[in-house]
Amino acid sequence: MKIGICLPYMKAGLNREDYLAWFKRVDEGPFHSLSCGERVHGPTYDMRALLSAAAIATSRVKITPTLYVLPMHSAVGVAKEVATMDILSGGRMEQICVGYGGRAQDYQAMGQSMKGRYQRMDDQVKTMRQVWAGEEVISGAGSIGPTPTQPGGPKILAGALGPKSIARCAKWADGLYAWSGNGEKHELANAFATADRAWQEAGRSEKPYRMGGFWYSLADDAQSRLYDYVYNYLDIAGPEIAKAMAQSVTRSNAEALREALDNAEAAGCEELFLVPATADLSEIDRLCEILESR
Fold it and tell me: Vertex 158, ends 157 and 163: CA angle to 5°?
């Protein structure tokens, strides 16, 4: 199982030196990949800018957006961004994750409607692949560059949760990004089993790539800070849901983290992203110790 780590992008006050330190530690560590998520509101940093910086500042780890809320954006614009980041990384952007998102305020802030986003994303994936293949999007206007390093562009994974969404994405996705906030085996295994069925029912001969993720913290006062992070992340759903989820996330010490890693591997994860609750460098250093001892 390949291990990736998500950059901190929701903490106010981070600066150039903070991110350069993260890039260096991750690139030198036992990680296969680094990622960044997308969120508009709050003290969040732009996913594309951070991953572009990471593409330049690192030389080894894969660069993976997790994930583009694709219906909030222009498909051509995303295709161009991804191809550019792929080139800047020297071909290390081998796959990207896309999803529908569920934050109406983010859609509104970006001048987009949530209505019709499911069909919109189906169409957008097709457009992105047209761009990466060098096909015309506007008749007579020529192709849209740049050309990605890998023919046809990066693989596209679906960040989908429910059976209906997974079934829809099975028609075009190369794999599934399954999420379990606390790294529970049954949640990840159920998502992958759902994807396997959906791929088969869609007439796909290949198996979906299996990517998973969960929240953790190994910083000082880890459990309290993990609780605060998850609560703040989900406060849009209301205090009751945010509190319940924050109380359910417990990967805040070495033993608990090892258990979650074992859970993900047993569930069939091929690649696993760990999402830290803080921007402390101890999140990387202490995680490295655990990974090196497994």
Answer: 140
